[in-house]
TrEMBL record:
This is Methyltransferase. Gene3D superfamilies: Isopropylmalate Dehydrogenase. It comes from Methanolapillus millepedarum.
């Protein structure tokens, strides 16, 4: 059967453009956690506003944010974003999200463990499912999971990741193709068999590529790592060493949009774009 690899499909090539279009159309209000504000963080927020992705609210120490803005913005010019003054951005961004004061939120430079812990408590959930959006050096987009070191530890959890992620792909108009990266031992083979059986029941296209990462990326658009630790390492290797890029990792929830980010990445403009695009806000009408 002559089928074009999922990773090279027309829909995937259009994915980033679609996300950008949705972000501009919705123009949501997005909160971003800020700790130790610097020029790069301010520049990312400024660019998101200039690109029309969202109205941005920086949540952190106001004095630090204003000081960092001085090296980015013209003297005496108005700030392109609002500031919510707090010394506990990990709590405040979740509070703003839960209250509906913002349409979506990204972690930004807020602490990961505290932000996610507050999110789980506020949403009354025990587990988090983060799905990273990855761009390779050549600009090809992929969905990738798990990326949290305590995520994807069982076959059942990976099935949840796949179901949630394929639903998200379909929401943005992409036909999912799942590629499993699995260990060659007996435990890895058994887990792959369980996952593939469940995918067949759900009519989701999935294939086990073992440790052949190249083939998985060549033929799939949603990559499932053996576990969160290996997934985190693969993601970091591809983005920080391999010239790729990350657009953030949306946490899949029914009623709220929260995009996790890596503090060492700094590409918060794209995470704001993704958060706005995924928000429940309806598109603006002229």
């Amino acid at each position: 059967m002559d089928q074009k690899p999922a990773s090279e499909s027309k829909e995937m090539r259009k994915l980033i453009g679609l996300i950008e279009q949705f972000a501009v159309l919705k123009h949501a209000t997005v909160a971003m956690g800020v700790r130790m504000a610097d020029a790069e963080t301010i520049e990312c927020a400024k660019r998101a506003v200039e690109n029309g992705y969202a109205d941005v609210i920086l949540v952190g120490n106001q004095a630090e944010i204003e000081k960092a803005s001085e090296s980015v913005l013209p003297k005496n010019s108005p700030l392109p974003f609002k500031i919510v003054d707090t010394d506990a951005p990990e709590e405040k961004i979740i509070s703003l999200l839960m209250s509906g004061e913002v349409d979506a939120a990204i972690r930004g430079t807020a602490r990961a463990s505290d932000s996610l812990s507050n999110l789980k408590k506020a949403c009354d959930i025990n587990e988090i499912h983060r799905i990273a959006i990855l761009l390779t050096k050549k600009g090809h987009p992929y969905f990738f999971a798990p990326v949290g070191i305590d995520e994807g530890t069982t076959a059942e959890d990976k099935v949840k990741f796949i179901c949630l992620g394929t639903h998200l792909l379909r929401r943005v108009g992409v036909l999912p193709g799942v590629g499993l990266i699995t260990t060659p031992d007996e435990a890895g083979r058994k887990e792959a068999a369980i996952i593939l059986s469940e995918m067949k029941k759900r009519d989701i296209v999935a294939m086990d590529y073992g440790l052949n990462l190249e083939k998985a990326f060549e033929n799939s658009n949603y990559i499932i790592a053996p576990n969160g630790i290996s997934g985190n390492l693969i993601f970091r290797a591809l983005t920080f060493l391999g010239g790729g890029d990350g657009l953030g990792a949306p946490i899949l929830m029914d009623h709220h949009v929260f995009v996790d980010t890596s503090r060492s990445a700094g590409h918060y403009t794209k995470a704001i774009m993704v958060a706005s695009a995924l928000s429940k806000k309806r598109g603006n009408k002229e």
